[in-house]
Amino acid sequence: xxxxxxxxxxxxxxxxxxxxxxxxxxxxxxxxxxxxxxxxxxxxxxxxxxxxxxxxxxxxxxxxxxxxxxxxxxxxxxxxxxxxxxxxxxxxxxxxxxxxxxxxxxxxxxxxxxxxxxxxxxxxxxxxxxxxxxxxxxxxxxxxxxxxxxxxxxxxxxxxxxxxxxxxxxxxxxxxxxxxxxxxxxxxxxxxxxxxxxxxxxxxxxxxxxxxx
Length: 213
Ligand SMILES: [Zn+2]
Hints:
Elements: H1 2-9, E1 18-26, H2 32-47, E2 51-58, E3 80-86, H3 88-98, E4 106-107, E5 119-123, H4 124-133, H5 140-157, H6 174-181, H7 189-212
Parallel strand pairs: 1-2, 1-3, 3-5
Antiparallel strand pairs: 4-5
Helix pairs in contact: 1-7, 2-5, 4-5
The protein binds zinc ion.
């Protein structure tokens, strides 16, 4: 088992055998064009570290409650991660309940055992406020992509820590966004190794659970 994990983890960018499936639930009604561009950004970021992304858009009716009926933990396969882009009002409720700082753009709760979180929340209205405040309108999709990649990073790194540079920085400045525009705001080599190993671990876990059925 360990050998397989290692082999998959070492696959590297040249041989992208590791794949994550990302379910997007767009409660914030982000325009499709912006969302697709953001997803392309996320795909690029993960491809750089040898992880491929498969996107699934889940259609929603506006009446559905993001925190309740849609997400049923037990029905999710191991490797699928869900991105809930939640509405301003849902984000407000969550921020108050969890006492979140104003500059928090997303949230990725950990699973009970601290490994294997599969759901990230993204606060799109805060991304919008951020780009409006800095007159970076044309970079909304880029910033949204960075936020999604950052939250997936938390899920796959299994921790809430931040680094001093790169995607996992707590807050990005203009220099970071310039780097991002050139595709150079990335995971560190160490983070990349951990993410690849974690994707491999979850793929094997999924494979094992399939075989048991
Ligand atoms: Zn973070």
